[in-house]
Amino acid sequence: MTKSYRPRLRSSHNVIEQRYRNKINDKFNALSNSVPTLRVATKRKTKNPDHMDNDEFDEHYYSSSDESPDLEGLEPARKLNKGVILSKSVEYIRFLELKNDRMREKNHELLEKARLLGIPLDKL
Fold first, then answer.
1. Where are the domains of the chain?
2. pLDDT tens for each residue of the chain, 124 residues long
3. Residues 124/114, Cβ–Cβ less than 8 Å
């Protein structure tokens, strides 16, 4: 290889790597906008970027009930970094799986009650 050829290879490799990192970062952003506990932190960071630099969580950040999301008992993220995004996403998936299992059980119970009451299930 000649010396003039190497910089071009390195440059194209850098472009490919940057594109790869951008795609991964875009997916992390999409994930943080999809998980409610992360969405709170994302909005907080957008409104006050300096606020997210420390570990403190301002419980009174949302002043009105219109702005406060229902997190169903889940703790909002205190920081936003890739590790937190992944762990909060896993936490939310597990929460949804548990919630789904409970809904299935409740549905089964209701169907059983309907059957015992003589309600035709084909109309439900």
1. 35-123
2. 555 566 777 888 999 999 999 999 999 999 999 999 999 988 888 777 665 454 444 444 443 333 557 899 999 999 999 999 999 999 999 999 999 999 999 999 999 999 999 988 886 5
3. yes
